[in-house]
From TrEMBL:
Listed NCBIfam families: MltB_2 (TIGR02283)
Entry annotated with the keyword rRNA-binding: no
Signal sequence interval, chain numbering: 1-19
A single GO molecular function term of this UniProt record: peptidoglycan lytic transglycosylase activity
Keywords for the protein's UniProt record, in alphabetical order: Signal
Record organism: Sulfitobacter mediterraneus
Domain Peptidoglycan binding-like: 335-390
Alphabetical list of Gene3D superfamilies matching this protein: 1.10.530.10, Bacterial muramidase (1.10.8.350), PGBD-like superfamily/PGBD (1.10.101.10)
Limits of the Transglycosylase SLT domain: 27-315
GO terms (BP aspect): peptidoglycan catabolic process
Protein name (record): Lytic transglycosylase
Taxonomic superkingdom: Bacteria
Length: 390
């Protein structure tokens, strides 16, 4: 579930905005156009011909792209589903097993081991299942599909470059339905830019070498802006009389300011000298977290707020944090109700993205504005009461 896998449901752009990116039409002619573009970019004609020779459209990829209901599940339930004692124990065991590699990652890229262990767990269950979709077919299918051709066409060309370098076989390379490859699920362009030979065998083997995959993931996070030596998330307690309009990623304050407002860490203390946002994934009655600048880097890995919250929280657990206090959040909306809410918000002029039943960033922003208009607690958590008032 690397970053672009979720982007399908959350940041799909209208076709008119992508008119300059070829897509659709005859699949064979589309592939011919890709081959021509690859050659124009410097790929040898015979190499381009060999790459695209057996490429096929994969309907299963399109079905997977349009089916992402798991992200309709609220944070508490989603995190409990993904984080088990077994995953925690295996994560800590892998941390010890690859201790020297994680030391290198922390020294070279400044990325904490818990962060990469959490991604490794969620993406492929520590490498045990890396996806069985033919990667070339998946990428070309998604590039041909007119939902996000600007996203996937460059990944096809990057895969051709990997093939030219000897690091990709279009017939046998497999991975996730959205084209990610290896233990931490990286797209071809990310591999070209951030692939690292972590085990010293002269090759970058993200499917079979944990050192290669982990080092590459660390380099990619560093490239995306990860700040060495800084935390990413802390669970906090918040006063009951708090001004809930101060919550959300749009509001940033110094940790000193948050302390002055009565926000306290449940484990240890808030980091000094950093700005942060106060996040309530299930409203004022549920768990609360302070998110530091590194937290925002997660959204370059994955666009789903629920996934990002869960991955960031799991990383803290792997490094010794306690189980979060689930609190007593108000009941939220089921998938159908969430779609009703998004439809109502859209009719009021809000941009909520796709009507997909997923509480994404745009929907949360619209919810907060309507909560303020209606005199409700502005915590970004949509409830049946809010839906009724709309």
């Amino acid at each position: 579930m690397r970053r672009f896998l979720i982007a399908a449901a959350l940041i799909a752009a209208p076709l008119t905005a992508l008119a300059d990116v070829p897509c659709g039409g005859s699949f064979s002619k589309f592939v011919q156009g890709l081959r021509t573009e690859a050659i124009a970019a410097g790929i040898a004609p015979n190499t381009a011909k060999a790459f695209f020779a057996g490429v096929k459209q994969d309907p299963a990829v399109l079905r997977a792209d349009r089916k992402q209901g798991v992200f309709q599940i609220p944070f508490v339930d989603f995190s409990r589903r993904l984080i088990s004692n077994d995953r925690i124990n295996r994560g800590r065991a892998n941390g010890k097993k690859y201790d020297a590699i994680f030391d290198r990652i922390e020294k070279t890229y400044g990325v904490d081991r818990g962060v990469l262990l959490a991604f490794w767990a969620f993406e492929t269950d520590y490498g045990s299942f890396q996806g069985d979709f033919n990667t070339a077919n998946a990428l070309v299918t998604l590039a041909h599909d007119c939902r996000r051709p600007d996203l996937f066409r460059p990944q096809v060309l990057a895969a051709v470059e990997l093939f030219a370098q000897g690091g990709f076989d279009p017939k046998s390379t497999t991975g996730a339905w959205a084209g990610e490859i290896g233990m931490v699920q990286m797209l071809p362009r990310d591999i070209l830019e951030n692939g690292v030979d972590g085990d010293g065998d002269g090759q970058v083997s993200l499917k079979t070498s944990a050192p290669d995959a982990l080092m590459s993931g660390g380099k990619m996070l560093h490239h995306l802006g990860w700040r060495a030596g800084e935390p990413w998330l802390d669970e906090v307690s918040v006063p009951q009389d708090f001004d809930w309009s101060l919550t959300g990623l749009d509001v940033q304050k110094s940790t000193a300011e948050w302390r002055a407002l009565g926000v306290t860490a449940r484990n240890g203390d808030l980091a000094n000298g950093l700005t942060a946002s106060l996040l309530l994934p299930q409203g004022r009655g549920g768990p609360a977290f302070i998110a530091y600048p590194n937290f925002r880097v997660y959204f370059d890995w994955n666009q789903s707020f629920t996934y990002v919250m869960t991955a960031a929280y799991f990383a803290t657990r792997l490094q010794g944090a306690k189980v979060f206090d689930a609190g007593n959040p108000e009941p939220g909306l089921e998938g159908g109700q969430m779609k009703q809410l998004q439809t109502k918000l859209q009719s009021r002029g809000y941009d909520v993205g796709d009507i997909d039943g997923i509480l994404g960033a745009k929907t949360r922003t619209a919810v907060r504005r309507e909560q303020a208009r209606l005199g409700l607690a502005v915590d970004g958590w949509p409830t049946p009461a809010l839906l009724g008032k709309l």
